[in-house]
Automatic annotation (TrEMBL):
Descriptive protein name: VIT family protein
Organism of this sequence: Nitrosococcus halophilus (strain Nc4)
Membrane-traversing stretches: 23-44, 50-74, 106-132, 144-162, 169-191
Keywords: Membrane, Transmembrane, Transmembrane helix
Organism ancestry: Bacteria, Pseudomonadati, Pseudomonadota, Gammaproteobacteria, Chromatiales
Length: 194
């Protein structure tokens, strides 16, 4: 059994697919909205260097990743140990070296990687136009405007993904998450007007 098959087996016996998927969407959405807020905040502020925006966004992305990694690992490890202990009591045996024991050790790591990785990689996608600008790539819009457009696109796609999972109309769920992003953007624009 290769590593991928083993992880899939451990996810199956621990019934953790849904948890990992939920963490991916929840923290991915947080990461996308945080980057949207940052880039729009810089957009309404005149004369901020792209390198400054990039550093602020990278700092936020790293903080989101670390928060996601540690919070998920701590909570999932505690839950898995509790479940393993209850199973051991019910079966009156030590399961530390069984597949259930292995799942109790590895699944919290996997879920932590999903929880911390999703906002980080989504943030990297959103700020990629800022990097491209730093390397002299000419974009059809300005770097901040392009990053904001990418953020809206990713938030829409997260909604589409949710629609596919729930079996509802994908366009409706995509538009619903996009509406949340638009409202967030409008609230930030109100800062400039105020």
């Amino acid at each position: 059994m290769n590593l991928f098959q083993e992880l899939r087996f451990l996810l199956d016996i621990s019934r953790s697919h849904r948890i990992a998927r939920r963490y991916f969407v929840t923290n991915g959405f947080d990461g996308a909205l945080a980057m949207l807020g940052l880039t729009m905040g810089f957009y309404i502020t005149d004369a901020v260097a792209v390198s400054t925006v990039l550093n602020a966004c990278m700092g936020t992305a790293i903080a989101l990743m670390m928060s996601g990694l540690l919070s998920a690992y701590i909570s999932e490890a505690a839950e898995r140990q509790k479940e393993l202990h209850e199973l051991e009591q019910a079966m009156v045996t030590n399961l530390a070296h069984s597949a259930h024991g292995k799942a109790a050790r590895l699944i919290p790591l996997l879920i932590a990687l999903v929880n911390g990785g999703s906002p980080f990689f989504i943030a990297l996608l959103i700020i990629s136009p800022l990097w491209l600008n730093q390397y002299g790539v000419v974009l059809p819009l300005g770097p901040l405007e392009t990053s904001i457009a990418v953020a809206f696109g990713i938030i829409f796609l997260l909604g589409v993904f949710l629609g596919k999972i729930s079996g509802t109309f994908w366009l409706w769920t995509g538009l619903r998450t996009l509406a949340i992003a638009v409202i967030t953007g409008l609230l930030i624009l109100l800062l400039q007007a105020g």
